[in-house]
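Private note to self, pasted from the team thread so I don't lose it. Backbone tokens:
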């Protein structure tokens, strides 16, 4: 049996998920809420870190039915609209699993950017319904991407 050659310094410079990213994903999938909170408190960017599949800790909470960890991530500001390498969000994964536990909260949280946009549009002045509907048609699906 051949032994693989040792890694060179060039091999160790290959891009990949950071060790902390792996820890935060492991904490999410294993339901280790205290470790998860420690990690995202120390480095808030970890709440949306991605692994080799483009999955976030929130996505792993959905896949493993870890509602308590998902709540901690959402309270810390984790993105519900981030997509993995297969272009699926946490909401898509919940629907795919038929996980009623996650569908309702993720659905409503994912609507917040669109609802905020509609409220800002309505507060922006007296808009007639026709002008409002035209703005919605003009904005189309880009409402979510624009962050409005």
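Design output:
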């Amino acid at each position: 049996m051949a032994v693989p050659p040792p890694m060179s310094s060039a091999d160790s410079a290959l891009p990949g998920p950071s060790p902390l990213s792996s820890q935060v994903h492991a904490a999410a999938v294993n339901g280790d809420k205290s470790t998860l909170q420690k990690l995202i408190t120390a480095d808030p960017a970890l709440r949306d870190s991605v692994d080799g599949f483009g999955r976030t800790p929130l996505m792993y909470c959905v896949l493993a039915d870890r509602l308590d960890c998902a709540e901690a991530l959402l309270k810390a500001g984790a993105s519900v609209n981030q997509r993995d390498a297969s272009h699926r969000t946490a909401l898509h994964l919940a629907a795919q699993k038929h996980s009623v536990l996650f569908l309702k909260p993720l659905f409503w949280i994912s609507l917040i950017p669109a609802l905020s946009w509609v409220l800002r549009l309505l507060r922006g002045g007296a808009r007639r319904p026709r002008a409002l509907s035209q703005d919605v048609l003009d904005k189309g699906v880009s409402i979510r991407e624009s962050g409005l």
